[in-house]
Write a structure and sequence with these properties.
It is a multi-pass membrane protein. It is found in: Cell membrane. The structure is a single chain. This protein is mainly alpha-helical. It has one domain. It is built from 21 helices and no strands. The protein starts with 14 loop residues before the first helix and ends in a 25-residue tail after the last helix.
């Protein structure tokens, strides 16, 4: 650990974060529903507490107006606003894709080509494909759970098992999709291209995917005969293919999202799903789905700025890395921090946004490649989010299947394997990537090297 970081910071700077966790968690526990305390309200209340605090020992104490200016600058930080714009574009894309039946076509195409004797691995693969294409775990769970319930009734597989498969597949895409808000948050907070994070992340989760498929293929049921016709139009899949291909070749994500929306609108108009004028309403509807997340991101940015001013970020960084002398220890600290935040907030995106700046500091301090940091943030937050019985994914799956979310939790094998292999790859220090140093790194994807450092 660098000596210039020792002794810096103040625990007082963590008061806004602690206040947020107490407000959010206590309301959810006492009312038995975390929906009773919206994240936006809890963060706003915690921000108010942060604005009321003054940094101890200042020669010239700041005024309330000065702290408000700090808050606004933090919420309007360039990278954060860019992330908000990408959130909105991703919402527009999903709105158009849903309205022109691209989501339905992706699902039905997978079910059509699926061999009946591989129904469970196939269900997981469909969940992976759909969540990767949609960029949302909640949307995937909502779309696939009714199908999974039908499969369970026709095959004799248990409802908790098929629901666990759906949630696992959903978290695959939430972790890796180019239009997932967690991917956007992880890459923007670390200032790296999406394809760089994808290359690191896919290597870390691939063993979990393979082992999960093997375990699912070993499950047996009395009846595996699923004779059903699933209609789809391959043309409707084009916007998803376009988004995936353009993202992989490294095109700017804003161009990718824009082209995805335009292609979806053109196909939707040609197929008569909506008119050209009607597409504007469809786009706006999709954007509104991301409004809460965008506003929350801005509020978190302001709150983090106050925490930084009060010394909370430096204090937390010093405590996390006090006994850490290696990159491995730094990575374990990042994994622990984002995991605890996700367990407390049940929101992997907010966990990444809140811990991203701290993780970036740890990355620069110990020479950890930003690709690995972004992957760790996304992997551990997504893994825990898929296992929390009070998080949205299990609540939706349990509600649609009419089973307890607790009964589903042991069957989300993929998320369990994600956490196991995430920890394993931190401990062995693989895959290795070349650290790029401090400062913005967008567009430097060519420096990424797999292998030795």
């Amino acid at each position: 650990m660098n000596n210039d970081l020792k002794g810096k910071g103040n625990f007082l700077g963590l008061v806004p974060l602690i206040a947020f966790l107490i407000i959010y968690m206590s309301t959810g526990i006492f009312t038995k529903s975390f929906d009773n305390m919206p994240l936006m309200v809890a963060i706003l209340l915690a921000s108010g507490i942060g604005l009321a605090l003054k940094k101890p020992g200042e020669k010239k104490p700041t005024t309330f107006d000065e702290r408000v200016n700090m808050y606004c600058k933090g919420g309007g930080e360039q990278t954060l606003i860019l992330m908000v714009i990408i959130f909105i574009l991703a919402g527009a894309f999903y709105g158009v894709a849903n309205a022109m039946h691209a989501v339905e076509s992706v699902t039905n195409f997978g079910l059509t080509i699926l061999p009946s004797n591989m129904i469970l691995p196939g269900l997981f693969i469909i969940g992976c494909i759909l969540s990767f294409a949609m960029g949302t775990s909640m949307g995937t769970v909502a779309a696939l759970t009714p199908i999974a319930v039908d499969i369970a009734h026709k095959t004799g597989f248990g409802l908790p098992l098929v629901c666990g498969i759906v949630v696992g597949g959903a978290m695959f895409g939430d972790n890796l999709s180019f239009i997932s808000d967690t991917t956007i948050a992880a890459t923007r907070t670390q200032d790296i291209p999406m394809k760089a994070k994808f290359k690191a992340n896919i290597l870390m989760v691939l063993p979990a995917v393979v082992i999960n498929l093997i375990l699912l293929s070993m499950q047996h049921a009395p009846n595996l005969n699923l004779a059903a016709t699933h209609n789809y139009n391959i043309v409707n899949v084009i916007p998803y293919i376009l988004v995936i291909v353009l993202s992989l070749i490294g095109m700017n994500v804003m161009f990718v999202m824009t082209l995805g929306v335009i292609s979806g609108v053109l196909i939707g108009v040609i197929h008569g799903d909506f008119t050209l004028v009607g597409s504007f309403t469809v786009i706006h509807t999709g954007m509104t789905w991301m409004e809460d997340m965008s506003i929350i991101a801005i509020l978190v940015g302001g709150m983090v700025a106050l925490m930084n001013y009060l010394g909370g970020i430096d204090w937390l960084l010093e405590k996390l890395t006090r006994k850490t002398k290696t990159a491995r220890g730094g990575e374990l600290s990042i994994a622990a921090l984002v995991s605890l935040m996700d367990i407390a907030t049940t929101n992997n995106t907010i966990s990444i946004i809140a811990t991203g700046p701290i993780a970036r500091d740890i990355s620069d301090q110990f020479g950890i490649a930003r690709e690995r940091v972004a992957s760790i943030l996304d992997l551990f937050s997504s893994g825990f989010n898929g296992l929390l019985p009070y998080a949205g994914q299990l609540l939706v799956a349990g509600g649609l299947a009419k089973v307890s979310p607790m009964s589903i939790m042991p069957y989300v094998w993929y998320c369990i394997l994600m956490l196991v292999f995430g920890t394993f790859f931190i401990l062995i220090g693989w895959p290795k990537f070349q650290p790029r140093g401090k400062g913005p790194q967008v567009g430097e994807g060519k420096s990424l090297e797999v292998g030795g450092m």
